[in-house]
Amino acid sequence: MRAALVDAPLDAAGLLAEVSAPANGAAIVFVGTVRESNDGRAVTGIDYTAYAAMAQRELDAIVGEAATAYDTPHVVVEHRLGTLTVGEASVVIAVAHPRRAAAFDASRFVIEQLKKRVPIWKREHYVDGSREWVDPTGVLVHPSPADQGHTSAGRATTAEAQR
Amino acid sequence: MRAALVDAPLDAAGLLAEVSAPANGAAIVFVGTVRESNDGRAVTGIDYTAYAAMAQRELDAIVGEAATAYDTPHVVVEHRLGTLTVGEASVVIAVAHPRRAAAFDASRFVIEQLKKRVPIWKREHYVDGSREWVDPTGVLVHPSPADQGHTSAGRATTAEAQR
Amino acid sequence: MNVTVLLFASYADALGTTELEIALPAGSTVADAVRRVATLPGADRVPPKPLVAVNERYAAPEQRLAPGDQLALIPPVAGG
Amino acid sequence: MNVTVLLFASYADALGTTELEIALPAGSTVADAVRRVATLPGADRVPPKPLVAVNERYAAPEQRLAPGDQLALIPPVAGG
Question: How large is the ipTM?
Answer without folding.
Answer: 0.90
